[in-house]
């Protein structure tokens, strides 16, 4: 809502709300309050009453409106959202106080009206009565004034709530100190008392006054008093019903409206939208619920960010299984298949290529290889320079982990060929790599310091897989599979046996197979 629009609406609420209340009070006290005397008032006196009311209301309403607008001027002249610091805090407090201040200004106008009408007007026409003045002062301030003030407060609050989020982009209204809080229970209790007790009390006072007047009245006066009682009762019934409907609607909306915003935001979150922010439009219990909802959604966004970030380290299936508590990352002995991949002639390539291009090409290569490993239920444990270490069968058990690793190696080969085709088209040299695959029992789990952990494998099979990968240089191959891995396959792969070879750290020869 634009500032000019809200200012115009607030002006209308102040003027029309008080005008309506003033007309009701004027009609009642001018034409229904006096019993038999109302029928003897001259037309010129009534015209003077109307003129006096118009002038008096105009003066009082203008004072009240100028007072309110001047008080709210800093809110309209400030760029939104308010700046941080004491100046911004003062503006935010002023924004929260606005409905209360406007209501106070309206009530002050009614207190002034209680002097202008019951006291000043009778003195001007020479018909002052202390009893009648006290009765009218009570009716104008306590009955009409409080009712109109409540109407102005709830109407202003309804309009102003659309602007409050502009002053509180973070939504934390409850954190602002030194501002009044109209709790939901207090709000409902006050309106219940006004709607339930005030009309009954006014009708009782009217009936009692007429009953006392009847005690010493003759027949003609008694008839006039009874007719006046009927008119007053009917008038008060209509006014009370209209007031009850208006205030009930405002109060119901002041509670149901914010709850509906929370409900709509909850429905969007249920549909998977985590960019939702529920507008916080009050500092009562419902506002605190909206703030708590926003904090909850912020936490969900952080969890989703962690989930998505975690998904960059493991496959989505592994991620979801771990986050759901379906597996543990504590140390355990696992039979797994380990894959090592290493780029060939990496050092000369780095020395002949600009660093930025090396990093860009390495990232592109790792992206392709990582996708192949993930696609076959593998987990990339780490990127070490130009080398990849991956595991199949942990942390989520996979009974076909050896087959998954070999399939991943075949896809890595295909992806490398496709990537090299693009490099050839761009005039860049091709890149080659060697892959070694070995199956064995290792200790798998979170390993590291108290501040930083990583999922790692410990055991001789890890070293042997790395050594097998290095044998690709000796045999001129690109993928080598150990005998233990071959034993876990179903024979569907074309494997060529190579001569047994001694590797560093082993006292016996190792049988390896080239993957066609």
What does this structure look like?
This protein has 516 residues and is α+β, with helices and mostly antiparallel strands. It folds into 2 domains: 3-270, no CATH class; 325-515, 2-Layer Sandwich (Alpha-Beta Plaits), CATH 3.30.70. It has helices spanning 3-32, 43-77, 86-125, 130-160, 164-167, 184-196, 198-215, 219-270, 285-310, 316-323, 346-351, 355-374, 401-425, 460-475, 483-487, and strands spanning 332-343, 378-384, 387-392, 433-448, 453-458, 479-482, 495-497, 512-515. Strands 1, 2, 3, 4, 5, 6, 7 and 8 form an 8-stranded mixed beta sheet that branches. Helix 12 packs antiparallel against helix 13.
Order of helices and strands: HHHHHHHHHHEHHEEHEEHEHEE
Sheet with most strands? 8 strands, mixed
Name the average pLDDT.
84
Number of domains: 2
What's the number of extended β-strand segments? Answer: 8
Strand content: 5-15%
| Poorly predicted sequence stretches spanning 5 or more consecutive residues | 35-43
Which overall shape is indicated by the principal axes computed on the Cα atoms?
A: rod-shaped
| Cα Rg | 42 Å
Helix content: 55-70%
Number of helices: 15
Going by helix content, strand content and strand pairing, the class is alpha+beta
Query: What is the terminal-to-terminal distance?
Result: 70 Å
Short description:
This protein has 15 helices and 8 strands.
Topology:
Layout: H1 3-32, H2 43-77, H3 86-125, H4 130-160, H5 164-167, H6 184-196, H7 198-215, H8 219-270, H9 285-310, H10 316-323, E1 332-343, H11 346-351, H12 355-374, E2 378-384, E3 387-392, H13 401-425, E4 433-448, E5 453-458, H14 460-475, E6 479-482, H15 483-487, E7 495-497, E8 512-515
Helix pairs in contact: 1-2, 1-4, 2-3, 3-4, 4-8, 6-8, 7-8, 8-9, 12-13
């Amino acid at each position: 809502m634009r500032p000019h629009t809200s200012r115009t609406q607030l002006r209308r609420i102040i003027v029309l709300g008080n005008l309506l209340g003033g007309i009701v009070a004027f009609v009642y006290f001018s034409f229904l309050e006096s019993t038999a005397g109302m029928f003897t008032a001259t037309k010129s006196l009534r015209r003077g009453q109307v003129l006096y009311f118009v002038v008096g209301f105009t003066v009082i309403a203008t004072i009240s409106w100028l007072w309110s607008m001047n008080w709210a001027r800093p809110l309209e002249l400030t760029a939104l959202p308010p700046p941080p610091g004491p100046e911004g805090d003062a503006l935010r407090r002023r924004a929260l106080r606005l409905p209360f201040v406007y209501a106070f200004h309206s009530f002050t106008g009614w207190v002034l009206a209680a002097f202008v009408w019951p006291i000043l007007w009778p003195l001007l026409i020479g018909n002052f009565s202390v009893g009648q003045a006290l009765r009218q002062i009570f009716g104008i301030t306590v009955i009409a004034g409080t009712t109109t003030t409540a109407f102005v407060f709830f109407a202003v609050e309804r309009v102003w709530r659309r602007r409050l989020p502009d002053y509180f982009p973070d939504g934390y209204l409850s954190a602002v100190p030194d501002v009044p809080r109209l709790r939901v229970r207090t709000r409902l209790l006050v309106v219940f008392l006004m709607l339930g007790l005030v009309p009954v009390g006014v009708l009782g006072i009217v009936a009692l006054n007429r009953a006392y007047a009847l005690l010493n009245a003759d027949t003609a006066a008694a008839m006039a008093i009874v007719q006046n009682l009927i008119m007053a009762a009917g008038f008060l019934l209509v006014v009370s019903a209209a007031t009850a409907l208006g205030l009930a609607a405002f109060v119901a909306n002041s509670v149901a409206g914010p709850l509906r915003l929370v409900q709509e935001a909850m429905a969007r979150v249920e549909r998977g939208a985590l960019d939702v922010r529920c507008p916080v439009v009050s500092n009562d219990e419902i506002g605190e619920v909206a703030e708590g909802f926003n904090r909850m959604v912020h936490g969900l966004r952080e969890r989703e960010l962690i989930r998505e970030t975690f998904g960059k380290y493991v496959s989505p299936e592994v991620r979801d299984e771990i986050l759901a508590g379906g597996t543990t990352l504590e140390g355990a002995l696992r039979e797994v298949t380990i894959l090592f991949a290493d780029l060939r002639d990496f050092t000369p390539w780095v020395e002949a290529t600009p660093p930025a291009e090396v990093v860009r090409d390495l990232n592109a290569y790792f992206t392709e290889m990582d996708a192949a490993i993930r696609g076959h239920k593998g987990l990339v444990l780490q990127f070490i320079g130009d080398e990849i270490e991956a595991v199949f069968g942990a942390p989520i058990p996979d009974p076909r982990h050896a087959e998954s690793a070999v399939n991943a190696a075949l896809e890595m080969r295909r992806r490398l060929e496709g990537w090299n085709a693009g490099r050839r088209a761009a005039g860049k040299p091709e890149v080659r790599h060697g892959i070694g695959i070995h199956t064995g029992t290792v200790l798998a789990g979170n390993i590291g310091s108290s501040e930083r952990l990583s999922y790692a494998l410990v055991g001789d099979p890890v070293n042997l897989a790395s050594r097998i990968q290095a044998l690709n240089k000796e045999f001129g191959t690109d993928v080598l599979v150990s005998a233990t891995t071959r034993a876990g396959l179903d024979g569907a792969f074309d494997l060529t046996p190579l001569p047994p070879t001694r590797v560093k750290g082993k006292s016996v020869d190792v049988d390896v197979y080239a993957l066609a």
